[in-house]
From TrEMBL:
Acts as a chaperone during the assembly of the 26S proteasome, specifically of the base subcomplex of the PA700/19S regulatory complex (RC). During the base subcomplex assembly is part of an intermediate PSMD9:PSMC6:PSMC3 module, also known as modulator trimer complex; PSMD9 is released during the further base assembly process. GO terms for cellular component: cytoplasm; nucleus. This is 26S proteasome non-ATPase regulatory subunit 9. Interacts with PSMC3. Part of a transient complex (modulator) containing PSMD9, PSMC6 and PSMC3 formed during the assembly of the 26S proteasome. Belongs to the proteasome subunit p27 family. GO terms for biological process: proteasome regulatory particle assembly. Residues 17-109 form the PDZ domain. Keywords: Chaperone, Coiled coil. Residues 5-45 form a coiled coil. InterPro entries: PDZ (IPR001478), PDZ_6 (IPR041489), PDZ_sf (IPR036034), PSMD9 (IPR035269). It comes from Jacana jacana. The gene is Psmd9. Pfam families: PDZ_6. It comes from the Eukaryota.
Amino acid sequence: LQNDHKALMKQVEEALHQLHAREKEKQAKDEAEALAEAMSQAQSLPQAFAKVNAVTPGSPASISGLQVDDEIVEFGSVNVNNFQNLQNIATVVQHSEGRPLSVTVLRGGKKVHVGLTPKRWAGKGLLGCNIIPLQR
C-alpha cells in the first residue's frame, strides 16, 4: 500500500511539473507575440507632418478635443504626401468655415480622429489653435 502511494504521488508530481512547464512556455510565447504585435503597430502608425503647440480654451479647436502636442497626420484633405507648408492647412480651414473637418492626430502613440469645425468665435482665427510644421 505504501509503495502504491509513493508511485502515485510521483506521477502526480511529474504531471504538475509538466503542466507548469507548458504554462511557462505558453506565457513566454504570448509575451513574444504581444511584443511583435506592438512593434508592428508602432511601424504602421502614419507619419505626422505638423504639431499643435497651443490650444486656446473655449475655441473651436478646444471644443473639438484637439490637445497640445497632438501630431497631425491628416487635416481634411491635407496629409504627409501633399503637405508643403502651413498655407495648405490655412486654405482648407478657410474653405471649410462652418463645415466639419476630419482631423487625424497621433496622441500618445495612438491614432485619434477629431471632428473639427472651423468657425468665427470670440478669439483670433477660425480654429483657436497654433500649428507648427514638423521638421523631418
